[in-house]
Amino acid sequence: MAATKIQKLPPEARQLIFAGFQEGKIGRVVYAELLDLFGQEVEFSQRTVERELENLKRRWKQRERRREWMADLVAASEKGNIEASQMVKALAMQGLENDPESFIESDPIKVQALALEGEKIRLKRAKLEQDNQRLALDREKFEGLKTKLLGIRDQAEKAKKAMEAAKARGGELPQDVEKQILAIYGLTEAN
Amino acid sequence: MTMTDFERDRHRRERGAIVRALKQVYSEPMTGVQSLRSVLRILGFALSPKALQFHLTLLAERGYIQIWRADQMPGYKDEPDSEGAWTPPDEIVFAHLLSSGLELLDREKVDLKVTV
Lengths: 191, 116
Description:
The complex is a heterodimer. By secondary structure, chain A is mainly α. Chain A has helices spanning 2-7, 11-22, 27-38, 46-78, 82-98, 100-105, 108-168, 175-184.
């Protein structure tokens, strides 16, 4: 198997192939570099190196795609999506079970912290929503009260006008009664 | 017992093992299907991904488990990448045992499709 041959190469040779992949070199160039490094010891063809470069490219793209997906999931979790946060946690557990070594490298505490952070944000958001609802309710109550007060004020104005009309007609109201009425409606002489 | 009976019986036991495995992680809100597969392998049930997906779908339809499919995950893209690798939108990626599933294990309920 060609891949096996490459996997059996010393680390320097594999690094050279990987560096070639990163720098976007074509198979022929990488193969020539391998020949320079190992001379006639190279037991595989240029085509094998080209295939290995293609494999690397494919695997790298898949890896990037998965990373992007994970990044979106984490972003959703950070925005307070509870399900996304649970998914991150489940994936972290899965990673730990299936590949403990790579998981340790990816810092499980950080992953767990991220899930917790998502939960905290969700709770904050829920509280904010609750506060907003309470505020809307208060506003509604205030508007109701305002309407009611305006109604009373309207009535008071009418009463005041009626009293003034009565005065004009010579029908005097006792001073203290008039004051009492005005006080009930919260009106002063200045009004 | 015919071969079909034998197969049917095996499938029932596999579903029972899934329910049992999910009970172990009942306190978690969801479990990755790959994790579940690993646990089943430890329990002696080496299910193919296709068989596991089939059993999970059936258990979800009967109301014993909740499942989440790939397209329910934020960031999921329903398209193959340039190399053709692709996760189907309906692939079940997470599962969680529901209380009716627990009832099966507690023998409070009997289902001929699931041997616990």
